Structures are given as structure tokens and as C-alpha cells.
Amino acid sequence: MFQTIPFNTPSILFGMDTMHQLGKQAKKLGAGRTLLVTGPNVKEAGILDRALSSLKAESVDVEVNIQGRDTPEPATSVVEDTAEVARKGKFEVIIGLGGGSILDVAKMASALVTNPGKTKDYFGPEKVPHRGKPTIIIPTTSGTGAEVTQHAIFLDREVNVKKAVASSALLPNVAIIDPMLTVSCPPRVTASAGIDAYIHAAEPFLSKNANPITDALALHAVSMITRWLGPAFADGNNLEARYYMAMGSLMAGMVLSNSGTSLVHAMAYPVGGEYHTSHGITLSALLLGCFEGILMAKQEKMILLAKAMGEPVDGLAPREAALRALDAIRHLLQSVDLPVSLRDLDITDKTKIPRWAIEAHKEQRLLSRSPRVLSVKDIERIYERAF
Ligand SMILES: [Fe+2]
Fold this sequence. Notes:
Blueprint: E1 11-14, H1 22-28, E2 33-38, H2 40-44, H3 47-57, E3 61-66, H4 76-88, E4 93-98, H5 100-114, E5 124-125, E6 135-139, E7 151-156, E8 161-166, E9 174-177, H6 187-205, H7 212-234, H8 239-259, H9 263-275, H10 279-294, H11 299-308, H12 318-335, H13 353-362, H14 364-367, H15 376-386
Parallel strand pairs: 1-9, 2-3, 2-4, 4-6, 5-8, 6-9
Antiparallel strand pairs: 7-8
The structure holds fe (ii) ion (FE2).
């Protein structure tokens, strides 16, 4: 079978201390007035000062916008406020420096400078008609992949559900991935962001949207993350672990952006929206239930996943070999103190399941990629399994 494969990525600069080149990259984009969107943690960790010195060395005229501490996924009003700052200041380049939420705000605020209306007008696939102001996106965690994706996720406060703007116009111009910036990331964030990255590789790999390019990236990312998440969690100063986690996360982000996530993300949105649990933690609690639910539809690929995670599967019956992937995932989650069920998050109220299942089922942009066709009832059963 012949496939047509679109593959999009920003210009990427990966490596230790690459943030020193921020000023030069901004200049290349023609930086006149530049807005740097970041968060309080980045300032406290001293990372902001390093960014500013690189910009000043190239005489870039920069203004800093420090976001408040919001829920793990920012509300749409935060984006609108930031876009207002960007419009009024007539900024020509927008830099996002921080965790996934900050990066999503920077990407979407840039788009709202050149497109009318509000964030909620653009929820869904390919609704943003024009590219925004040029963006440079610099992650300080290894996980979200936001530096290379065409998505941004926000909390729709009207219905308390996380929703995605998924438009190619949101693809950043430049992604700078400097593993040194992740050294100050605390263990729990390292773990939750790291498992988000794992899922960005594994979930598209098992989906209907998989292709040979993203599969190659996905399997390599899965191996790297399985090998290095534990060491990065155990000792944040382990630079080798930080380096390979950043690379695994970058590759997973490219898989996410080009093949797309599916069931685990769709089912996490209503739970995260309701309990304000962080993205990676919510995914972690649902992961085993979801992968059990699609196991029979993708047995061969589940075996490849098990192999990539280092499981010895030769000589096993196919079903048994596929189940080894679930064993390896459970072990990975538990080794970095991540939840393997909703109960581990103290979420025990099963009466919410029917409503969550209806909300998750509405995410057809994601569910259409699932290898198993899922009804609302099927999704309810997977939520049950995740308790
Ligand atoms: Fe994610």
C-alpha cells in the first residue's frame, strides 16, 4: 500500500547550551521588537536571565511578559490577555520560554495578533487561517513537544473541559531544545512530562495515522524514554539522562505533530478539566486501561513496543508478547511514582463516567485515529478499567 505522508517541523536547534544562540536566531527572524513570554519558575531558576543576556548580546529590543500561576492548562482568557499585550506593543517576534502551558500561550497569542476573534473560535482542526507573528519556542521540560507541534491546549472554562486548537498555522518557526534548561525541573514534573512524551510516541505509533517516518521516530523515542526517565527522575543533575530525555521528547513531539494522539488524550481531557490534575499525571492514570482496550486491534505493533522497551519477547506466543508491553509500561510508571489508575489519584467517583465518556467521544479528531472503533459504551468500560 502506498501512502502520501505530509511531515512538518519547525527549524530545530538541539543541544547543550543552545539557548546561548537565542539572540542570533531572533535576529535571523528579523527581530525588531520582541516579546518574551515566560513564567515565574523560569525567572526563579535563573533561566530568564540567560535568555535575556543572549538577546541583549545581539541588541534585540525585548520586553518580558511573565505569566501568573494558573491551572496546569491555561484558561483561554490568559491567551487573550497576552495577545492584547503583543498587539499593543507591535511586537514582531514572539518567544515562548517555559513548560508546555507557557509555550501554548505564546503560540496562540502570536496567532491572535494576525487573526481576529478569540481562542474559542479556533478550537478544532485547521481553523486558524493565517500564521501569527514568527515564534521561537524553547521548552524547559522534556515532554510536551509543544516546541514542534501545531497544537495548543487550553481549558474552556465554560464547560470545564480542555480543548485543542490544532492548526498548521501554529507550527513554531524555530524550536530551541537545550537539555541544560531541564536540569532544574523537579522530579515529579520530570516524571509527568516524561510520560507525556512517552505517550506522544507510543499512542500515534498504535494509531491508524501511523506512517514509517513517525514509526521510526516513535520506536527510538520509546527506547530512549524507557531507558532514561528513571535516571532523570532519580537525579536531576544527571546530564546524560537530561540530554536523552530531551531528545526522546523532541522526537516524540514530531510524532505527535505529524501522526497525532488518540484515545488516551481524548479520555484525559474531561478528567483533567474536572480535577485539574496535570496533563501527564492524568494520562498516566488512564494509560494502561486505554492500551488494554486497544491491544487486540494492534497486537503486532504492541509487540514492537514491548521490544523497544527492552522486553525479551522471542519465543513467546503473540498475545503474551504483546502483553509484555503493558508489563513494561506498568513498571516504568511505578518506577517514577506515577499513577497506574484513577484510584491512585484519589479519584473514586464512578458516577462521572457516563458524562466523561460522552465528552471524550466528542473528540472525534482524536478518536478517528484509534485502531479500535469506540462507542460511548466502550469508552465507559475503559474508564471503569482505569479505576
Ligand atoms: Fe500530551
